[in-house]
Amino acid sequence: MTLRIAALDKEACLPRKCQLQCINFCPVNRMDSECIVLGDEGKAVISEELCTGCGICIKKCPFDAITIVNLAKELGTDKVHQYGINEFRLYRLPILRRGTVAGLVGRNGVGKSTAINILAGNLKPNLGNWDSQPDWDQIIDTFQTPEIREHFQKIAASELRISIKPQAVYQIPQVWKGDGLSMLKEVDERGNREDLVSRLNLEESIHKKLSDLSGGELQRLAVAAAACKDADFYFFDEPSSYNDVYQRLSVTGVITELAAEGKFVLLVEHDLTLLDYVSDTVQILFGEPGAYGVVSSPMSSRVGLNVLLDGYLPRENIRFRDHPVKFEIYAPLDEEMDTPVVARYPNLVKRYKDFTLKVTGGELKQGQVMGILGANAIGKTTFLKMLGGVEKPSEGEVEIKAKISYKPQYLSSDYEGDVRSLLSAASGGSLESGLVQSEIVNPLSLNKLFDKNVASLSGGELQKVAVSACLLTDAEVYFLDEPSAFIDVEDRISLAKVIQKFVRSRGRSAMIVDHDVQLIDIVSDSLMIFSGTPSVEGLASNPLSKNTGMDIFLKQLGVTYRRDIDTGRPRVNKPGSKLDKKQKEIGRYYYLDKVELKE
Ligand code: ADP
Ligand code: ADP
Ligand code: MG
Does the predicted TM-score (pTM) go above 0.85? Predict the structure, then answer.
C-alpha cells in the first residue's frame, strides 16, 4: 500500500481553455466513478481515494497542472498540515535545539515558510484535516517527538516567545511608514540595537524612510529588528537575499551569536556555503514543489550538505535528484585558454557624481566564463553596462564588435503574454529544437512555466525565465547580472551547469556577477575582483586565474576555505581553526594543492 497524493496547480488549471481532458480520459471516470470532477471553484478536483495513479490525466493536461505522487505509507501519520483539497501538504517538522542553529534547505514551494509559520505559532497545524481544524490537545497528542510536543504546548499556552525575520522583506515598508531607527526603537527589547546597527553596517540607512532603502539595507534592517527582540526562538527566512558576501557574513555573525547565548535558532537559506558555515544541524525539505514536502531527520551540517549534493537521503532511503553534484577537489590549473579573443577592452574610468569606477583593461576569450565578485555598490553593474554600450565611459573607449546578450540585475515582469511566447521570441524560433530542450528547457524545468503569464511568476521563476531568455538570444557574449537571486538551491546548481555547458559547447563567452561563492566556483574559469569602498570608489581587477582571484577576494573577507574530503565542495574554515591559521600563513585562502592537502 502506498500513500497517494494528488495536487493541482490552481493557477495553471484553466478548464475554460481546455477540453477537460483530465476528466474525459480518466479511466476511473469512464467506469462511471467520479475520480476527477469540476469543483465549485471551476477547477479540477481529484479524489485521492479513487485515483489509481495511472498518470493519464498528468499527460493529458495541456497546462501541466496536475501532480500525482505515490509516497511511502509510513508518512501518512506524519502529516502536519494541508492547506486544502489537492493542495500543498507538509510532512514532519524541523527539530530545534537550544543553543544551536538548525539549518533548513529545500526547493522553492516545498514548505519551508509553512514550517516556519507553524513553529512560530502563526499557522495552527491541521494534521491534514483542512475542513475540521483539530484543537491543541489533538495536535500535541499526534506528535511523538518530545521537543515538538513541548513546543506546541508552549504555543497553546501562549508561552512561546518568538521572533521572525520574514522571507518577504519588501513587504515591511507597507506596514512601517517611519524610518529604520524608529522601527528598531519600537522592537528593541534587548537593548542591543546600536551594536546591531554598527555590525550590520546600517548607520546611514536607519535615518532613511523604509521605502527608500535598497533591498540589502532592508534585509539587514529586518535581521536587526528580529535580533533585538527578546525571544526564545528566532527564525530567519532567507536572510541573504540582496546582500553581498560581506553583508552575508555580518548577518551570519548575528545569527550564530544568538545561538551562543542559548537561543533556539532556525535558518532557511539557499546559499550553501553560508548555510554550511552557520548551521550546527541541517534538515533537508524534499518533495514536489506545490504538492508536498517532507522534512528529513537532522544531520550534522557537513553530512547534510553532502547528502544534499549527492541527491540521496540514506536514512530515509530516498533519491531526490537523479545525479550527484561533483566538484573538482584540487586547484584548477593556472593555464591560459588558447581560444580566440572575442572582446577586448582598455583601462576605463566612469565618474558619477559621488562614485568613481576604475577598470583595468582585459579580454574575454571564446568558451570562457568570467566570474565577477565584489561588494554591493562597487561598480559591477556599471562595468557591464560600459562593455554593453549602455553607459559611456568617462575615460577610455569600448569597441566591442561581438554581439552581447544581457540579463540585467533588476527584472521587470511587465511583459504581456506567457512564458512560451517570451522565450520563443528570444530564441528566434529555436525553442522547440532538441538541442535547446536538452541544454536549457529540461534542466531548468521550464515546461511547467510555459503556459504561465510572465506577470504572475514568482521571483525565482522570473529569474529562471530571464536567464533562459538571455541564453536563447543569439549572441557571442552573455552578461548575467546576479542570476542566483531568488533562485532555490536545486536551480542554482542546475543553472551553473547549464550556463557552463552552454558556453563551452557552443563556443560562446560569459561574464557573471553573483554573490553566491559556490555558484561562481562551479561556473567560472576566470575571475574579476572588484575592491574599493562601496558607493565611493570601485577598482576592477584585470581577469585573473581562479586561484589568484579567489585568494584575493577571500583575503579581503578574511575567510579561508577548505575542501570537503568526500565531495570536494568548498567549506568555510572556522575562524582561528588550525587550518584557517595555516592557510592564512601561506596565503592560500581558497584551494590547497594536492601536496599541501596531504600534510
Ligand atoms: P517555501 O517557503 O519552501 O518556498 P511555502 O511554505 O511558502 O514554500 O509554500 C509551499 C506551498 O504551499 C506552495 O506551493 C504554496 O503555493 C503553498 N501555500 C502557501 N501558503 C498557502 C496558503 N495560505 N494556501 C494554500 N496554499 C499555500
Ligand atoms: P554594483 O553593481 O556593484 O552593486 P553599481 O554599478 O550598480 O554597483 O553602482 C555603483 C555605484 O554607482 C553606486 O553607488 C550607485 O549608486 C552609483 N550609480 C550607479 N548608476 C548611477 C547613475 N546613473 N548615476 C549616479 N550614480 C550611479
Ligand atoms: Mg519561503
Answer: yes
